[in-house]
Amino acid sequence: MSGPAKKPQEASHSNFIRSAIEADLANGKHASRGWGGQPGPAKSHEGAPADPAKIRTRFPPEPNGYLHIGHAKSIFLNFGLARDYGGACHLRFDDTNPEKEEQEYVDSIIEAVKWLGFSWEHEGVSNLYYASDYFDFMFYAAECLIEKGHAYVDSLSAEQMRVLRGSLTEPGKESPYRLRGSEENLKLFHQMRDGRFKEGEHVLRAKIDMASPNINLRDPAIYRIRKATHHRSGDKWCVYPMYTYAHPIEDALERITHSLCTLEFEDQRPFYDWLLARLAEDGLFARPLPQQIEFARLNLTYVILSKRKLIELVEEKHVDGWDDPRMPTLVGARRRGYTPEGLRLFAERIGVSKADSWIDYSVLEDCMREHLNEVAPRRMAVLDPVKLVIENYPEGKEEFAEVPNHPQKPDWGKRQVPFSRELWIEREDYMETPSKGYFRLFPGNKVRLRYGYVVECIGHDKSTGAVRCTYDPDTKSGTPGAEKVKVKGNIHWVSAMHACAAEVRLYDRLFKVPHPESFADLNPDSKKIITAQLEPALKQSKAEERFQFERHGYFIADRIDPGSGAPEFNRAVTLRDTWQK
Ligand code: ATP
Ligand code: MG
After folding, report:
1. Is the distance from the beta carbon of residue 328 to the nearest atom of ligand 1 less than 6 Å?
2. Which ligand is nearest to the CA of 89?
3. Which is the catalytic residue, given 165, 297, 415, 427?
4. Strand 378-379 with 546-549, pairing
5. Which residue, 113, 179, 346, 570, shows the most beta carbons closer than 10 Å to its own?
6. Catalytic annotation on 307?
């Protein structure tokens, strides 16, 4: 799946999933579905009023980690389709695997989905579900399969089973235990549940076809023994359903119409359909059954989108936790200053397709710039400060510059920014000996102090390092004749006696290469901590307020320093792409 990253087309709202849904709606496939008000088997929906949700989709995370930007693609897709077609989208915790799941992850997932702007409520029903609540039904469904001869208890070792499974080129061979009668199977299955065996001693397998060209149909395991405590059901169970068995049942109980998943599940679709068809024959589910549709997962350059790898980054302390602003997690993106609207724009722009590809990280950054440009007020901040002294400006005097809060939005008004004899400017805005094409401060050159005066540089003070200049009192921005003196450079500043010093963290991409292979590819410059000088208005920022620091980029107020009361800022994204080759 590597290869050159491509820039996606502009959002084309229609895609193959929308076409499938529109066709189903047009021919009324789901119109007669009853909905008993909560998940359940066929009989609980029978005779119930028609489902008020025209379609049902679901977002089914396993609560074994924090959500990442790949999950956001799935959230926008599933919740977006439900919203657009008068349907409901369920938030379902796929918590059938007892070992790795925790309440902490459940809470963070709920928070993340809300942050992206979605709700699982539909017509007064909260569609928030836990797959573990269906354990009783799943066990019952397995008993039904056994009774109908569709499942058997196998007592081979995992290794023996692997050998008999065959390969892509060779058919599998049947296990000697495949011939067990239903009564014996049922008894063994109950004994498995009752804790009479050790882990791995027996498994329950679906009885399908050991010669199938699709290996997933060669009698897949559907229940295994696990003596583990589950984060919700505790020690009630010591047998747990396999994901591939549990997932179709969860969908069917919830009357999901379109079950969207990533492409790696394409080979599982025949089993998904086989299982639901058997259970429908037995009257456990009514038709129409849910339909699985696969789409390409998001692969994003310069980061990794795998919960397992993200856990390693946290545990090996390559980052400062799940919400480190460099992390591609949604909690990280939030602290980075990324916006839900920017992520939505990104999801629309990359679209949905049937073929795996890589999306370049710059596409995400551009979406953030686009949205932040709209919503972030402008402020002045000097990140690498050096003093500028205006020698002919009276000592102790202060006045105010009128500064627009957003150059394209006059209705956002202007603010008064204090100006005085000593200012902070960026170190790189002065050169003792200018390089070719340098238009900012150098001895003999004039620049405009943004929203203030034109100043002429007279060099710098060798002992303090301060840059020296004089100003022209007739050039104050906004006063008549101010534009008479033409200059090429235009630099920002902060009045030294009014400035607020604050910690600013300059974040950059987590990995230094587009397709990271290991943690050796981590970008050593992904986090730089500096002390910046900010214009005084920024001192009042509230947590999560976002700004454009003029000429620098977009920043978010993160923690408020309890000592100084001043916020710390994180850089979300620079104004321009600095990674372009
Ligand atoms: P990971 O591989 O990171 O652990 P996962 O697929 O195991 O992810 P789940 O919690 O099972 O994580 O995912 C919940 C939903 O999010 C699934 O429907 C899955 O298809 C979808 N999803 C996960 N990763 C991506 C991705 N990179 N792009 C699009 N959808 C994704
Ligand atoms: Mg998964």
Report:
1. no
2. 1
3. 297
4. parallel
5. 346
6. yes
Exposed / middle / buried, residue 560 (Cβ in 10 Å: 0-12, 13-18, 19+)? middle
Whether 56 and 82 have beta carbons less than 8 Å apart is answered as yes
Ligand 1 pocket check for 74: Cβ under 6 Å: yes
- Is the CB of 262 within 6 Å of ligand 1? yes
pTM beyond 0.85: the answer is yes
| Angle in degrees, 0-180, between the axes of helices 340-350 and 361-375, rounded to the nearest 10 | 140
Whether 40 lines ligand 1, by a CB cut-off of 6 Å, is no
Residues contacting residue 194 through CB under 8 Å, at least 6 positions apart: none
Q: Other C-beta atoms within 10 Å of 140: how many? A: 13
Distance separating alpha carbons of residues 502 and 533, to the nearest angstrom = 6
Residue 73 catalytic? no
Question: Using CB atoms within 10 A of its CB, is residue 316 exposed (0-12), middle (13-18) or buried (19+)?
Answer: exposed
> Which of 18, 29, 62, 111 is the catalytic position?
62
Give me 507's structure tokens: 């974040």
Ligand 1 centre to CA of 52 (Å) is 28
One-letter amino acid for residue 328 of the chain: P
* Catalytic member of 180, 269, 278, 307: 307
Query: Ligand 2 centroid to 298 CA: how many Å?
Result: 14
Q: 274 phi and psi, to 5 degrees?
A: -60, -50
Within 10 angstroms of residue 502's Cβ, the number of other Cβ atoms is: 21
From the CB of 306, is ligand 1 less than 6 Å away? yes
Q: Specify the residue with its C-alpha closest to ligand 1, atom 10.
A: 61
Q: Distance from the CA of 507 to the center of ligand 1, in angstroms? A: 26
297 noted as active-site residue = yes
**CA 59–ligand 1 middle distance (angstroms):** 9
* pLDDT tens-place values along the chain, 581 residues long: 344 444 444 334 689 999 999 999 999 999 989 999 999 999 999 999 999 999 999 999 999 999 999 999 999 999 999 999 999 999 999 999 988 778 899 999 999 999 999 999 999 999 999 999 999 999 999 999 999 999 999 999 999 999 999 999 999 999 999 999 999 999 999 999 999 999 999 999 999 999 999 999 999 999 999 999 998 999 999 999 999 999 999 999 999 999 999 999 999 999 999 999 999 999 999 999 999 999 999 999 999 999 999 999 999 999 999 999 999 999 999 999 999 999 999 999 999 999 988 999 999 999 999 999 999 999 999 999 999 999 999 999 999 999 999 999 999 999 999 999 999 999 999 999 999 999 999 999 999 999 999 999 999 999 999 999 999 999 999 999 888 899 999 999 999 999 999 999 999 999 999 999 999 999 999 999 999 999 999 999 999 999 999 999 999 999 888 887 889 999 999 999 887 75
Using DSSP, state whether 300 is helix, strand or coil: strand
